[in-house]
Amino acid sequence: MTLTAVIMAGGKGERFWPKSRTNLPKQFLNISGNKSMIQQTVSRLEKLISIEQIFVVTNELYAELIHAQIPNLPLDNIIIEPIGRNTAPCVGVASIIIEEKFPDSTMIVLPSDHIVENEERFVNILNTAAMVCEHDSDSLVTLGITPNYPETGYGYIESTQNRLNINDMNVFQVNQFVEKPNLEKAKEYLAAGNYYWNSGIFIWKINTIRRYIKKFMPEMNDLLETMKVAFKSNNINQVIRSEFPKMPDQSIDYGIMEKAEKIFVIPCIFGWDDVGSWTALERINDKDSNGNVIKGNILSIDTKDSIIESNGKLIATLGIENLIIIDTEDVTLICAKDRAQEIKSIIKELREHKLDKYL
């Protein structure tokens, strides 16, 4: 069984502003530990897959950053998108490149900016997912995170009672993917016991995903076939630069996963977090006795349940709670914690006021 991996690393991480910037987005930051998030992702995968079989899809801005942070990654394995077009085109282009090099491989697709605490279990689950694909090559497999609270910020996967037992793990057939719920729905999903957070991690045979793309996204498939032919006589990056902007702006979830029939989910508990906003720091870091997550030069008095990070200069707080305070060289963010998901609205205002130097 040949395994390959595609790491999606083109995002801007806008909800992690002001530390995540256009020229240094979230996946290249040390959010947890002494490595950047993309370095951690590659390191986890190398426990299962050779670096020569790991591919990173990104945009032109970050190609040099990837080479600098992962110097042993072959340059040909950095796939450059000229424009953002969501996850379906990302998977599609990666699939035709990998198809040429590793034609019968099983492909793991995953984001570049997630936290995984139990790496040994994570790798074992990926191996199990690949075994499912070997067991039935028509299968598409996704990892569902077993929820431990009613999260409204994630999409969910509902499983049926139909299951396989592979490598001593339960693998359930998927009934449906559901959108981010309101709090009442999220509580219902948690109580039901057969709903899982959508991790955005997928595993499938390379020829299987190509077949599903042809069936459910025929226009994109035609573009991919055109690109495959052009690859033989032209520079791959030149072909992608020319053809990729014609791709649909669509997610792999909507384009394929919500339409395919034979989809399986593996329920997972391995200390996962998608680090979607600043409030994630409360989940992945220790809190002080007042419920604060504090990093840097901080003096706090009567300060509770806050996230405070200093860039060097002293931040002194008195009598505050439920705030996010993030200080960088040129920007200080002060935000109500329950509005952390809205930080993108600041980005929008900065663009409208042409304050691009702060983006």
UniProtKB/TrEMBL annotation:
SUPFAM superfamilies: Guanosine diphospho-D-mannose pyrophosphorylase/mannose-6-phosphate isomerase linker domain (SSF159283), Nucleotide-diphospho-sugar transferases (SSF53448). Residues 296-350 form the MannoseP isomerase/GMP-like beta-helix domain. CDD domains: GDP-M1P_Guanylyltransferase. Residues 5-289 form the Nucleotidyl transferase domain. It comes from the Bacteria. PANTHER family: MANNOSE-1-PHOSPHATE GUANYLYLTRANSFERASE. This is Alginate biosynthesis protein AlgA. It comes from Paenibacillus konkukensis. The lineage of its organism: Bacteria, Bacillati, Bacillota, Bacilli, Bacillales.
